[in-house]
Amino acid sequence: MTANHWIMIGLIGQGCFFMRFLIQWVVSEKRGESTIPHSFWYFSIGGSAILLCYSIHKQDPVFILGQSVGSIIYIRNLMLISRKNQTASIGN
User: What is the pTM of this model?
Assistant: First the structure.
């Protein structure tokens, strides 16, 4: 891949990270309270994965560490949400 392709990949990753905050803001405004929707976590995982690929290509250990650890946290949050939803559906 050319340098321009890698720049586009990095920008797409940053775009995913931007979208997660935009979505969070819009949903919070609609509900009138601070809310983190499920899509926030999916955009976090997508953006993190794309930026991790970009940072590996750039061989940036600081960026690699930050994106790899972040992905674990985002996935864990989705697991906790899923567990809560399953427990709630069993209780009803």
Answer: 0.82
Please name which of 78, 90, 62 lies closest in space to residue 20, comparing C-alpha atoms. Answer: 78
How many domains is the chain partitioned into structurally? 1
Judge contact between 20 and 39, C-beta under 8 A: yes
Full domain range(s) for residue 76? 3-91
Positive or negative CA dihedral for 25, 28, 30, 33?
negative
| Residue of 53, 39, 45 lying closest to 7 (CA atoms) | 53
> Coil, strand, or helix at residue 33?
coil
Q: Tell me the per-residue pLDDT of 62-77, one tens digit each, with 9 for 90 and over.
A: 989 988 888 889 999 9
Single-letter amino acid, residue 63: F
- For residue range 22-47, list pLDDT tens digits in order: 999 999 999 999 999 999 999 999 99
